[in-house]
Amino acid sequence: MSDQEVQLIQEARVWQAKEWTARVIKNDDDDGWAVAMYKDGQAEPALIGPWTMGRDKKNPKPLDHNAFNTLVKTASEFVRRHEQQLHATLNKNLIVSGVEMDYKICLQIIPDEDAPYAYLSAFDLVGEQIAKVKVRPDFKLNQVSALKWVESEFGRID
To answer: What domain of life does the UniProt record list for this protein's source (predicted)?
Structure first.
């Protein structure tokens, strides 16, 4: 066994492995139990869900290897879907037809806590970047705004 494996906790209410920690906690909403899944290095749980009562109908069912593996799979899928949704929210693109060629116009929002901003970029259909300007993070990318930018020869947008 490696040092890392020796340090892992695998108990009835706390189980660690595969970059995850499961903690069985008291459910604040009712008399039951919940399980919180933490990704290593994260202070907040990635997912909290209901947990099964044990046979005595008072204490939680103990965590085990199989239950933990199922929880890791569920939490990983939840995190992946959240990341995909966030990426889709922050990155939009569309194709517009210019006079000479078609362009892929991309909006990338940078969600800085103090001063968010965005970049509007134009690419030819081979993928070579033609233009890039900084825009407000609330810039609305649609066919009309993209075509207007192309027709302005990729000028600044205020």
So the answer is: Bacteria
